[in-house]
Automatic annotation (TrEMBL):
The organism of origin for this protein: Thalassovita mangrovi
Cross-referenced InterPro entries: Extradiol_RC_dioxygenase, Glyas_Bleomycin-R_OHBP_Dase, Glyas_Fos-R_dOase_dom, VOC_core
Coiled-coil residues: none
Signal sequence residues: none
Protein name: VOC family protein
Short name of any one Pfam family annotated for the protein: Glyoxalase
PROSITE patterns: VOC
Domain VOC: 8-134
Amino acid sequence: MRKLQAQGIHHITLTGADRQTSIDFWEGLLGMPFVFEQPNLDNPDEGHLYFDPGDGRLITVFTNETRKPDPKRTPTDPGCVHHLAINLSRATFSQAVTRLEERGIGHSGVKDRGFMDSIYFKDPMGFLIELACYRFEPPFGCSHADVMIEAHRIRVARGDYNIAEEHLADAIQLLVERRQQTLSRD
């Protein structure tokens, strides 16, 4: 059977509060330029704001001027979206705790995920946001996913519980050796 081959996420749409609260959060805190706005074409009582998360794709937010921020955690039942992870550079990630605290935003502190570091906090509507920073750069011509699949294979073969930096380093070496020739015998 033929697949409907995905080529990346086109956009993600979230339910936000009012227009200004949404702009203040997505652009004001997270630095995502506000690039487009129109009505929600399925609900004339709502606006539809578009933000660029840094890769040219889109995160969109439905707004309603009667909806106010509600910091209660959004549902995490099966079928619900648990959280949204946003990629940060190492330099920006190293400043994230300070910058969140400057704004009085509660957060999880830095969490060690083996192959990346994470910080969690909620948007104005209680939706969990993760700031994520990889602990590695993929070799030239490879993606983060290329490294992750190789690191996973190495981890499983070794019987290790989770991916660690050693698996990443070995995966990167393997990818370079496959891709790049050498005149050396060693």
